[in-house]
Each structure stands twice: as C-alpha cells, then as structure tokens.
Amino acid sequence: MCGIAGAFWIDPQHEVSEQVLRRMTDSLAHRGPDDSGIYHRLPHEHGPYGTVPGVGLGHRRLSIIDLSGGHQPLANEDETVWTAFNGEIFNFHSLRARLEGAGHTFRTHCDTEVIVHLFEDEGIDAFSHFNGMFAIAVWDQRHRRIVLGRDRLGQKPLYYCVHGDQLLFGSELKAILQVPGISREIDPGAIDAYLTYQYVPHPRTIFQGIRKLPPGCYLTFDGKNLEVASYWNPDFSREISISLDDAKAELIRLFTDSVKLRLQADVPLGAFLSGGVDSSLVVATMKQLTDQPVKTFSIGFPQKEYDETSYARQVAEHLGTEHHEFQVTPDAIEMLPKLIHHYDEPFADSSAIPTWYVSQMTREHVTVALSGDGGDELFAGYDRYRAVRLAAAVDMFGPIGRFGSRLGMKFLPAGGPQKSKLRRARRFAEAIAMSPGRRYLDWISIFNETRRGELYDDGFVEQLPDTDPYAFLYSAWQRSGKRDALTAASLADLTTYLPCDLNTKVDIASMAHALECRQPFLDYRLAEFAIQLPSKWKWRLGRGKFLLKHAFGGKLPDVIWKRRKMGFGVPLNAWFRGPLKELLHDTLTSEKAISRGYFRQDAVETLLREHDENQFDHSARLWALLVLELWHREWVDS
C-alpha cells in the first residue's frame, strides 16, 4: 500500500517543480514509510512522439510484495509508459504469465510492473483486467497524456484538480494542497451533501476546484481534453435465476478464491476480528487456506453496548487463532486533532475512532490485515433493511397503508433516545408517504431535508446550487430498475455508502499507521455474483445474510449467526454531556463558527439545549457540526 501524487502540464509557466512534487509526495509519508521515489520531466519539443508535456510522478511505498524490487515510479523497457500506483493487483501472477508469453520482459517480482506492460498492450482497457484495490497514475508518452484509474468499489482514494492545461492528483487532498495557488474555496453544495450523508459524495470534494475520481472509472487528460468514463458497469437491473445449492457452491468458490488471493504478502499478515459474521468468515477461510496460526485483532471499550470482544473471543477460540485483544478507553479530546488532520475533508462517521485504534494496535504486530467490509451491502446485513421490507409491504396497500402509518405516528413520542424502538417507529411513519428512495435517504441522513432547512442561515441557502443531495442516492437506487426495494437499497449502499464512508474510513485510519487493509468481500467477481442474486437468497425470516449462513454455517459458533448486529461506535451521547460538553459548546457557539454564515445561531443552540436536557439524542448531528468547524480551523483558517 502506498501514496501517490503527481502533475501534468504543457505551458512551462505552469510547471510543478521537483521541489513542489517532493512536498506533495512527502505529505503522504504516513502511507508509505519504507521508500519514496520521484519522476520529473520538463516539457520538450523534440521528443520521439512530438512535443512532450511536462510530467511529475511521486510515490511513497509501504513494502508488501518484492520488498527490494518494487521501487516506484516504474517504467516499461523503453520508458514510454511510467506508473505510480497505490494498492494491490491480486491477480498479477496470472497477468504476468500472459504478458511474458506475449514477449514482455520483467525486471522485478512486484505487481506494479504488470501495469506498465499491460498498458502497453491494452491501453485504457488494462483497468478492466485488474483484480485488486488500486489508484493508478500512468504517464503515456506515446499519446502525450496522463491517465488515472480507480478500483471498481472505491477501496483506494484518488483526488484530482484541473487548471487549464495543468492536472494535479494525489491519494489524499493534502497532497494537492501542497501546490502554491490552489484555491481552498468551499463548495456550499458539498456542505449540504456532507450534512445529509456524513461524508462528501464523489465526484465532489469540500473544495470547489478539486474532485474525486469515482470508483470504477478512469480519467484521461492531454492538456486540452479531459475525459472521465466508467470501465465497470455491471447490470444491477438483471436478476439471475439460480437454485440455492448452486448459489451456495458458487459463493464458496468465489469467496475462498478471493481470500486466497489476498493472502499474498512478503510481510506479516493477520485479520481484524469483530465477532460479527463477515470478519469471522474471513478468518475462518484464512484458517482453511494456511497451515500457520492466523493472527486476529479485536478492540474493546469499557461501555458494554460498544464492546464486541466477547464474541470475537468465542470465534478466536473456536478457530484456534493467535488472538490479540486490546481494551481502550477512547480519549476524544486527544483523538480529534489527529482525525481532523488525516481525514482532510469533513468526515462525520464517529466509528473512525475505533477504526483508528484497532489499526494502530494491529500495526504493532502485522503489516497487512484482512477485514469483512462489504458483506452487509452484498448480502443485505444491515438492520435498516427491515424497515425497507416493511415499507415495501405498506406500499402494497397503497394510500390506505400509508394513511394508517401516518395516523399511528400521532401516538408516538417525538423525543427520546435516537435508537429507541419508539423513535425508530416514528421516523418510519414520518417518511412512509415518500417514494422508496427518498424515504430511505430520510432514514439514513444525519440531517434530513427538514432539519437542514431549519439549520441553514438564509444567506447560505442562497449560495446552494440547484442540485438536490438526494440525486446521489437516487441515481444509485435507479440502477436496480424494477427489482425489489431491498435489492435497490442494498445495492445503492454498495455504490454510495460503502466507497464514500466505509472504505474512506478504513483507508485513512489504516494508512495513517502504514497498515494495509484488504477486503475479500470486495473482489469484483464476488460482487458481480452477489449483485445479481435474488433477494430471497439474502433475506429470510426478518434477517439478512441467509446465503452466507447456508454456505458457511458450520464454520462459526451458532451464537455468531444469532447475535444482534452491533455498530462499531463510540458513546457520543455520553461524551457530549460529559468530557466533550465544554469543547462542543465553545466551538459551535464561538464567533468564528457563527461568522462563517452557514447556520442559524438559534438553531445550533436549540440542538445543544435539547441534547443537554436529554430531550433528543442529537449526538450524530452535533458530531457532524463539531467536525466541520474543527476541519475549517485546520484546513481553511490556518
């Protein structure tokens, strides 16, 4: 795993100097502490392929495969193709055999070298041959262009910025911000989306002039023409007809091969083990594929409702792993500045805190850790899908069913704990009259449309674009066509929540500690199979992951299959009434925060008061506002 940065320009006046390129690269040193490299070439008029633009590629390396031979940037034999690459190409052995058979000569044993040789043969089509997690930059001298590509499910991030004939890119925003003159003008629409989703959805970033390359896409730029296009377009509307036994056999085959591919490493390797189904299945399959004890890592907290270590311990004992369990008392005041610095655009998923701790402690023992991310989206594991199924049933009764739900809402409390059954019932009833996609957004939003309207200052509303944040989810929801609502919701999560929230959270927290995290459920072959499975093989009797249990039930203790799903979280509610109360109030009611002109002061004070008096649990909303203000102070005001 690594960090990449770079630049492309034609006009000599737009040169990104080697010194600036090195600053961009060094800002990512935490992602790759083992090695660094720079390729820098000024424009020249008499190259073998005509006028050659200026180009700079920077790389920070975390050595995983071919520890001595994987230096980057790396070129093909005649140096007409150069690459800087972050991630892993898990099928590189088979690609290498094919390329050697076609006459290519390899100088290293690393996966990076297949990129330049395959690009020689296939050009842009090379991306569709890679099975891996990656952000790739290719300098294609023959066509005098820069090419960027990102893996199908957004496991690795890639940011870019275009100024005229100049393009800048990096694994994190902070790399691009090293370039003098880069604007830090805030995008009001990004703030609106952030308060909706708790992250800024691609292709937006918090800054007006910087973009994220969406998952499964590539970008080409020659100084005049910019093209962003998708190379991965599975048909979400197609549902296959398959027997349960055939689905089980195919799932076992694909998942086992995915785990096997992700065990390739020349460094110590282990796995996160939460005690949930997905991480436990990863560990069970690892044990099946190796003769060595599997190293597993769990993190626990003093608050029982946030501690899963007892379940992780049962799985570890059942599988005979070399288990490491860490007990942590989170220090939010000490942690906040680190999170704000590393998550260099506003990111309000508070589970970044436990993810940070488990990554930090796991890195003391191994360099690579496998995780269970993606299982919930692919096999319908979230509790919120119960509401989706129930709402679909209400929809079958048309206006009568919706009227009954709205009538029942009058007898439900408006306050109380956010996750109580009564509060959930009220939120369900409030949204039932909406379209399926719109009400799903209402359920998952931190600030739904009504609350954002109450929060925003009139002047800020005037700055907002005409686009609706719902468009991001709606476009994903629509991809499922006429399939059922459960399928539409879970596959929308696969292309929105998973890459923008979960993968961002894991990438930043793990790479802050130079830990590579691999996610076997996100092998694109497994994803394509699960995408087209009917929901009846995912959801049965009010629970998800039916096919996983049918295929792998005997591998895990029965209690793991029956346990209630537990979020990977922290006690924000208690923190904001205790150790973080003063910081929260002082920050959100400060003159600096008010002067930004985003929010009505009385609306913010109402949120604080209602939370303090235990009328509402506004902890997720207040965390989002706190992170946003502290982010401004770190990345805009300084």
Automatic annotation (TrEMBL):
Cross-referenced InterPro entries: Asn_synth_AEB, Asn_synthase, ASN_synthetase/amidase, AsnB_N, GATase_2_dom, Ntn_hydrolases_N, Rossmann-like_a/b/a_fold
Protein name: asparagine synthase (glutamine-hydrolyzing)
One Gene Ontology MF term: ATP binding
Record Pfam families: Asn_synthase, GATase_7
EC number: 6.3.5.4
Lineage: Bacteria, Pseudomonadati, Planctomycetota, Planctomycetia, Pirellulales
CDD domains named among the record's database cross-references: Asn_synthase_B_C, AsnB
UniProt domain Glutamine amidotransferase type-2: residue ranges: 2-224
GO cellular component: cytosol
Keywords: Amino-acid biosynthesis, Asparagine biosynthesis, ATP-binding, Glutamine amidotransferase, Ligase, Nucleotide-binding
Active site (record annotation): 2
Residues marked Important for beta-aspartyl-AMP intermediate formation (site): 373
Residues at which ATP binds: 299, 371-372
Family according to the record: Belongs to the asparagine synthetase family.
Reaction catalysis annotation: L-aspartate + L-glutamine + ATP + H2O = L-asparagine + L-glutamate + AMP + diphosphate + H(+)
Binding-site positions, L-glutamine: 111
